[in-house]
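OP here, attaching both records as promised.
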Amino acid sequence: MDKVKEKRVAENPNIIKFIGVGYKGIDILNKIANNKKEYIGLATIDIKENKINENIKENIVFTEEHFKGESLQKEGFFKITDAINKHKDNLYKLIKKERLVLMICDVCDLVAVHILIELGKIAKMNDTLVIPIIINTQKSNNINYKFFIKKINRCIGPSVIISNNKVFGNIKFTNDTIDDYYIIDSILNLFIENMIATCSVYIDYEDVEWLFNGNDNVEMSIIKVNEKSSEEDMRYKLIKNRICKGTYELPKKIIINATANKKYINYDKAFKIIQKVAQVIEAESDKDCKITFSLKFTQEENKSIEILTIKA
């Protein structure tokens, strides 16, 4: 762990804003709202009059008629850009007080993608860190997913890309697809909460800013390991339990977020396991890679240590 990044003192935000854009983004936020955590702010941008959870208080509805049809590609983005400009003040209100915003949409919903990009631009001008979480439902064979994902990267920055293909290993499947909400809930519990909650070792806002300062997408894995886990077992799980694949062959920036129960694993044991995971990741990373980590203890009855790794 000699490459662990030196901590900087920074004041963490008290609230992390989640914004759901379009049908899929709203669907995810409705589920989050059922079990809303106090450190999360929720907002939606609705296009087709979706049902919105009553716990979500900030909502913008685009009522323009040309948003209702399915032939967006024929119309182009000009009318949508005009409509977004009309709503610019309301969009700005969603993010003007925020330091960190996570925006969720389906890359197959091109109206939602366009709104997400424009809102991301507004947020960046406001010096707000934006992390797009892009769901790929693959509902259309006519959409060039890579083109729009690269456009999001170029206009906003690195994204978390969640595909529903059965390619990531045994995370949690519903009819041969990954449960998108399960993945996002895991990111909340194992990543965002380790910045907001009281942890033995926490990540701070500048750690997140450091990690998401680039143009390519991050890679994430969720694994459960213990003292007896071998390096080979860890390496296998990091690949098998990958929840999103990044674009970096040799990552230079890595955050390891760990959660354990003190009844089974004390701080020293947890730190040794984190060191071991770091060594496994470091062996397949850039020679100048930097690693930082967080450690949170919970009351959950889990004899293993649960780890979310993020590579960039």
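Record two, same layout:
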Amino acid sequence: MVVLAASICTKGGKPVISRQFRDMTRTRIESLLASFPKLIPTNTQHTSVETAQVRYVYQPLEDLYILLITNKASNILQDIDTLHLFARVVSDLCRSADEREILKNAFELLGAFDEIVSLGYKESVNLMQVRSILEMESHEEKIQDIIARNKEAEAKEELKRRAKQLEMQRREQQRRAASGSGSSYLGGGATGYSSIPRFETPEPISTSPRVTNTTTSTPSRPPAFKGSGMKLGAKKTKQAELLDALGGDVLASTELELSAPPTPAVAEVPVMPKSNDGRGSLPEVEKEDIHIVIKEQLSLSLLHDGGVQSMEVKGDMNLLIADPAMSQIRIALAPSTSNFGGKSLQFKQHPNVAKFGPGQERIIALKDTSRSFPVNQSLAVLRWRYSGTDESNVPLSINCWPTASHDGTVEVSIEYELEHIENITLYDTVISIPLPDGSYPTVTSHSGEWSLDSSSHSISWTIPMISFHDESQSGSLVFSVGGDDTGAFFPVLVNFTAKGSLAGIEVASVTHVEGGDEAVFSVDSYITTEEFLVV
């Protein structure tokens, strides 16, 4: 069968959308569609009509027609089956089959048409596969929308955090002034008073204020101020008016700074700007003319009593060729060294890429060896997915164990361990444990670094790198905090980026189709967490 075009037109023959799969001019397709309604016999139930050159296979679609224009030698049974798939795709993407709705979803419909028919020949796909392909193509757009919303929320939180710090500085200023006046009254000496501490206007805050652990046994001192000092009866400054407007959002007291060590003090911690590509601190890869990107996303929910509630790994391999001389190649994947996922690990190739089955040699090459991969255009050639609850597939195990004491405190011991996956190295791992309202922790032991996040009232435990080959493979954090509810420390949120592949996808070699000579290539393989929780 050869499908020349797939079109949706009005009952008068006016084209709404049309996709040509062979070289046809606009005038030619408009002429064919204009003559189509005149060929339909009245009072019949036929679904096809023919002319001397082409065959129309059609189906009514409310006030429109959806039709395939094929050559006369085409298999009409296959054409009808293809037409039904086109009609189901239109019904799935459009709420109603009217001209306005069709034009509104024209881009998605044309993309779906290309997935069903390629160069005039039907691809081996069904409605679910077409829907899955379209959803995966829009995944990056969804990520950008989430990033934009997060930036807006972070800007609002930044305003609140700055206001809180300004309020704490103002109260500390008042406390120091009162303390200085009292000491001068008791030991006035010759003058009977001592100078009031002088204050300077704090510099603009460029980083998010967070609560961090101190390394000395004395509370952190606020920055020394200088300037005009305190003025009784002075008018409110703009900062004070801002704080009054925020009202209850400011911190209630400064007891945090006055408490005994090692309780945290307010400090400014530079927050590294987050990279939009999600790589974090992963080392960059120098690109060759053949560059392969292997990216996986992990969604994992662990039960704090043990076991896996849900786990999903989605991965894709993208090929980018910079030199036209390298466009006709075959990519050989290395045999898997692990049994990750087993039969639950499913692969899906691009429609133009030859498929490989379980137990077969995993080769990525075009079905038509005379064709070439696109140049200077990233192409998703392979996708895979795993979904299950097998605990042996979990890359990083988290054990959070809160224990309530009789003195009104809870001791929390949390530990991590990188499981036996040697080809993976974790970077920028952050484990966030929520805290009871109004309570602040006393950390007794820890590996890595820890800090308090005032915006979410949680303790953030940061491990810069976790490797299977050194002592960073496992670590622990122990702290105590006031309270009696052991369930208040869940859910635990985990974020990291990693180098490698959970599914064990590795490129063994890249060779030219003609001659079989090996080609130089580069591989960038990494993992990101979409959602990692301990509930």
